[in-house]
Predict the structure.
Amino acid sequence: MTGKSAVVTVDNKSVELPVRSGSIGPDVVDIGTLYKQTGQFTYDPGFTSTASCESKITYIDGDEGILLHRGYPIEQLAEHGDFLEVCYLLLYGELPTAVQKKDFDYRVTHHTMVHEQMSRFFTGFRRDAHPMAVMCGCVGALSAFYHDSTDITDPHQRMVASLRMIAKMPTLAAMAYKYHIGQPFVYPKNDLDYASNFLRMCFAVPCEDYVVNPVLARAMDRIFILHADHEQNASTSTVRLAGSSGANPFACIAAGIACLWGPAHGGANEAALNMLAEIGSVDRIPEFVARAKDKNDPFRLMGFGHRVYKNYDPRAKIMQKTTHEVLAELGHRDDPLLEVAMELERIALTDSYFIEKKLYPNIDFYSGITLKALGFPTTMFTVLFALARTVGWIAQWNEMIEDPEQRIGRPRQLYIGEPQRDYLPVSKR
Ligand code: SDX
């Protein structure tokens, strides 16, 4: 507590509400007793002014374009760390020592296989099923296999489930891709690092050896780091709300995957690439920018804007650099989609509409170009986002379970429907 308070006056009655401070960032007004004291609710449907929890995991300063994971800037983690090191940091709160890193990598690596019966789940889906539909189903189905790690009150079982999720998501994502393209599943190999293992499970075929390109593996690993966690975004809030009822972690992650799928959230990377392809050439950009500004046109520039960032998304800058590295490595330096993306960014950043609304490229703007260059179809883009975000969901879920203030999430409403009225027999309607 800060000793500070906020006074709310309702119907000439004033109530004093405590103000709480964090370590950095805005204070919060604790409104937990507001209804009891005033009989009134607060109203904030998009949670634009609402803090749902205390957290130590990720801090975002939207005005300054700052993103910290357990205090470490995303730029430093992306430059110097690897994804499993960031997973350790998000889960345990500190960067691992060399011994801790080796042990964590070993434990994750030796949980990458899924139960052989899982492969039969895939055959129930139509061949043209969107891989995100497959992921929603298969991740939820994991709870049918691991009853030894669904007692959420047991910290050991929570950590076992957490490691299983982090370890198995690449395997399930690769299986969803292979099923989508009609190729046989490829089993994980324990002598490969996390990102290399995933690329091989996606792109290897039984007919020939597959050698992982280290530049592409490093780019994939960095893309995972950039997507790992992001405070109380929509899908993380979904996982927290599902977990607050005591649901098992696999079901909670499946709920997060479902929420991430939306084009306003994680589905924006797929939508952004489709938008760039629809624009097609630099000379058509003004037409689409005009549509994005037109109040009567629902079209928005996918990959632009953010609920929190009112400055450049720091992840987008790193993503853009990774895009150039991957395209250079693959000899696609002059990819027409990149040319359209860079010109669209240049125009949007100088346009008064985007400037006054503080709309900048977000992480989804460049990721699609990179993932396409790596060989993934657009339908797999959000699956890759879900793969990486699983550690963030799991870390936030664990924090929520361990929070002594944690209760089942149960918002109220502003009712605007009919007051009570009596039933009329059909003869009188
Ligand atoms: C992610 O929360 C997270 O952290 C998410 C994420 C994560 O890591 O988890 O960062 C990942 O989801 C990134 C965002 C990906 N989504 C997109 O790129 C889709 C396109 N962007 C928009 O749909 C929108 O910007 C949102 C959904 C991202 C944010 O929406 P808000 O905060 O509700 O803002 P808004 O819709 O109220 O927009 C504010 C104004 C509006 O104009 P007015 O009604 O005030 O006149 O800006 C306009 C909007 O019309 N606007 C856009 C725009 N985004 C907002 N206009 C044109 N193109 C856009 N992209």
